[in-house]
Amino acid sequence: MIVGAHQPHYLPWIRWFDKLARCDVFILLDDVQFTKNGYQNRVKIKHAQGSMLLTVPVLDPVGKAIRDVDIHAGTRWRAKHRTALANNYAKAPYYARYRDLIDSIYDRPWTSLFDCIEYALGLLLPALGIRTRLVRSSDLGIPGKGTERLIELCRAVDATVYLTGDFAVGHHFDPAAFAPYGIEVRRQAWQCPTYRQQYPQCGFLPELSILDLLFNEGDRSLAVLMERPSARPDEPAAPGPVPSGASLPLDPAFGRGRSDETDDSSLCRAAASEGGFYTDCEAAHCSETP
Question: How far apart are CA 65 and CA 287, in angstroms?
């Protein structure tokens, strides 16, 4: 039984889905603390000048568990995200096939960030052909933190293998602690697969939302993800002890910007009536919490 665990993300990036697709059970860490400037409420998509961020605006998230974070309903984020996807992917080979499916996310007046994320996952997994069972960590009733809690979460779903990202090993948990429980730790052998993308003048961009892959590759999306080796056996952890009270696995790329990204203010725009260009919206709509 291969098990993975990660914070739930909004329209997650491809690496997140790669790990999920290689697991029998995937634990959504909905009761861990929300990460400010992370990717629980935002994701990158491609546009003609590089990549841009789609951000779900949230209210007072600091110190709250992800499942308790509310969406800022006073903003026009749903209309902006719908328009951004339409403007940037209209010519993608499979955009028309999945447009109504994805648009249904924006037809609902969400108040809970996690509810929005979970609904979107319920659409994306069948569309991709992924049969991994999702489990909320909050439903397992496992107290504690760090390595000890991660082990107990794995035991609660009968894990024999725990699939993890590289950075978490030695930084957020101790892989050697799993062995006495008969759980093998494997590291995700991640390398972003090459697939067709829009805007070839920008070059190939990795680490985009799964929507970029789905809109461009359609039924082949899962095959593109699975065409490389799934994982490599565990290697020695990075030197030095795991910090006391370390949290469950976080991705090191959280909060990092890139020179080809536009900032969040790029979302505060409304589509022009023709030509596919954007015009700035009223400043009142720009109160998003990153």
Answer: 22
In what helix (H) or strand (E) does residue 26 lie, and over which residues does it extend?
strand 25-28
Check residue 202 and give its pLDDT: 95
Residue 145 lies in a domain: yes
Looking at residue 89, its amino acid is Y
According to the model, what pLDDT value does residue 283 have?
23
H or E stretch covering 286: none
Cα 146 to Cα 172: distance, rounded to the nearest angstrom: 7
Domain that holds residue 229: 2-285
The pLDDT value recorded for residue 72 is: 95
Residue with tokens 């009142």: 284
19 lies in some domain: yes
Taking 50 as the pLDDT cut, the residues of the chain under it are 233-290
For residue 65, give the H/E element and its range.
Answer: none
CA distance 216 to 80: 21
Give dist(CA 165, CA 20) in Å, integer. 11
Residue 290: inside a domain, yes or no?
A: no
Token pair for 173: 């948990």
- Give pTM, 2 decimals: 0.80
For the chain, the 3-state helix, strand and coil shares in percent, each to the nearest 5, are 35, 20, 45
